[in-house]
Amino acid sequence: MAAPPATTATTHHRALLPPTRTHAAATHSALRLPLRAHPHAHAQRARLTAAAAPAPAASTASLESSAAGLALLREFANVDCSYGLSPEDLRAKISLCDALIVRSGTKVGRDVFEASGGRLRVVGRAGVGIDNVDLAAATEHGCLVVNAPTANTVAAAEHGIALLTAMARNIAQADASLKAGKWQRNKYVGVSLVGKTLAILGFGKVGSEVARRAKGLGMHVIAHDPYASADRARAIGVELVSMEEAMTTADFISLHMPLTPATNKMLNDEAFAKMKYGVRIINVARGGVIDEDALVRALDSGIVAQAALDVFTKEPPAPDNKLVLHENVTVTPHLGASTVEAQEGVAIEIAEAVIGALKGELAASAVNAPMVPAEVLSELAPFVVLAEKLGHLAVQLVAGGGGIKSVKVTYASARAPDDLDTRLLRAMITKGLIEPISSVFVNLVNADFTAKQRGVRITEERIILDGSPETPIDYIQVQIANVKSKFPSAISETGEITVEGRVKDGVPHLTKVGAFQVDVSLEGSLILCRQVDQPGMIGSVGSVLGEENINVSFMSVGRIAPRKHAVMAIGVDEEPSKVTLRKIGEIPAIEEFVFLKL
Ligand SMILES: NC(=O)C1=CN([C@@H]2O[C@H](COP(=O)(O)OP(=O)(O)OC[C@H]3O[C@@H](n4cnc5c(N)ncnc54)[C@H](O)[C@@H]3O)[C@@H](O)[C@H]2O)C=CC1
Ligand SMILES: O=C(O)C(=O)COP(=O)(O)O
């Protein structure tokens, strides 16, 4: 949890149903998505652990600020706060938890996901940087990772400015000197900021806020960010420049990009060699974006006059870390996000994201799953159900089931191609296809990975319909190529198992099987029969079902031509016994039949 208090772990026992009150509801759609790893989980109160390692001494402020988030969590889940956990302790505990919330100090590596035994469904990072979480391992284990991307932006920016000004005026060094009984006015002559050029590397949320504030100090601000929008920069009065220009013209350089393989040791010997002699560096991003040995060399040679660092490659740094001990370096122990206000905001932001995810809602701050805006989600909701059911039906029609290699999904829509986000639908089709034939649970997080791992290639195609789109999708078709079917009539003229569905009045319907048009609502279970098209067939099947008191919810007959072959789709509320199914198969005019669970 954010800002760890120095308390010992409190363990609560699983009990009770989750309360109905939802804090996340205001920001997230109520649509439930398959993020649950455990089929029983919704019947029980989720268990969540909030971990931080190692435990710094807690201030009263941090205790109070994390309380609001903890209170939200405790309304929903059994919460176990553990601070100072060793990696072994975290691994030992994690199989008992549905969710884990951490700050930057806790490494959540592959070992943690493996040790969770599939129970861990959400990792909440109570802050921005997710470089301490193994995202690939999380995705492979179907575990959603959410962060708190906005609540500490201002705190980090203010800390950047604090370091900038403190460095320029030698505040930390002068303070230490005076406290040591010295009065060194000549030694601590600083440099002015007004009119100086500040280069911001990483013009995202924090970088932009630093830029605004630095402009208020009268600095000339430039920024380098390959992905930043020029309009946003212009609006703040910041010029976007190349890395080369930022390096060579800046008097101050402030780092605000994430730590990724591309940014790792971005400031190295080569970069320092390009900088203006006497440049000053501020790092409130991640220690790893600077080659720390190269920075020591640049400080010693005078290329870098001063540095102000909140973050280090290894945290906490070793006691003999040359940067920490360097006279020209001002340091803080990763305090960028540590204000009362930011920690309260982060705690609430992450609590809401984790609770939403545990409820199966899509988190707006999902890091390893597509972010689908709430309005799109609510519009797509019935199609999400349709997609999963079509996948589920299609796989049950395959004889043998396991040999699926090639699946084509076609969406017919009057929407422009860039106006329909199909990632969610594709994930649900994958779930429908794969879950019935494997022990893997599939969710939005791991759908693409799982399909790839099982060698299932899913291609998507769009049919653009004329007219104005009242609904986002007219129909969805799922086709499985190069397989045999246990219901051969499901194979279309082009040779694939084909099922097609539409949403009618908010309810998913099966509208085509193979070449046969049918219309049956996808609720309960389904019997598909192919028969000679002749009078009395509906009655014959209906009376066999009636004998076992099976309620028929829907029935539809699709035929190619009168008195030839027809496919009858019968929706049933209850699952017929084997005897009843055999009796249906024995009706003389029935040539093929299959029972499908929806
Ligand atoms: N010291 C602390 O306590 C805190 C540190 N941070 C760190 O600050 C960093 C930025 O956070 P936010 O602004 O919230 O993230 P953000 O995602 O809003 O901004 C990051 C920006 O970096 C840019 N970027 C990516 N690769 C780049 C490259 N090679 N060169 C230049 N720019 C590049 C991105 O395009 C993006 O605009 C993160 O690393 C985060 O972990 C954030 C909050 C507190
Ligand atoms: O949000 C971030 O990226 C931070 O660096 C803040 O990390 P923290 O939660 O203070 O360990």
TrEMBL record:
Is the keyword Oxidoreductase assigned to this protein?
A: yes
Give GO BP annotations, semicolon-separated. Answer: L-serine biosynthetic process
Q: Which InterPro entries match?
A: ACT-like_dom_sf, ACT_dom, Ado_hCys_hydrolase_NAD-bd, ASB_dom_sf, D-isomer_2_OHA_DH_cat_dom, D-isomer_DH_CS, D-isomer_DH_CS1, D-isomer_DH_NAD-bd
Q: Where is the ACT domain?
A: 526-598
Key words of the record: Amino-acid biosynthesis, Chloroplast, NAD, Oxidoreductase, Plastid, Serine biosynthesis, Transit peptide
The reply on keyword Transferase is no
Q: Which reaction does it catalyse?
A: (2R)-3-phosphoglycerate + NAD(+) = 3-phosphooxypyruvate + NADH + H(+)
Primary localization:
plastid
Q: List the record's Gene Ontology CC terms alphabetically.
A: chloroplast
**Pathway info:** Amino-acid biosynthesis; L-serine biosynthesis; L-serine from 3-phospho-D-glycerate: step 1/3
- Spell out the molecular function terms from Gene Ontology: NAD binding; phosphoglycerate dehydrogenase activity
CDD domains under this entry?
Answer: ACT_3PGDH-xct, PGDH_4
- Protein name as it appears in the record: D-3-phosphoglycerate dehydrogenase
Q: Which organism is it from?
A: Zea mays (Maize)
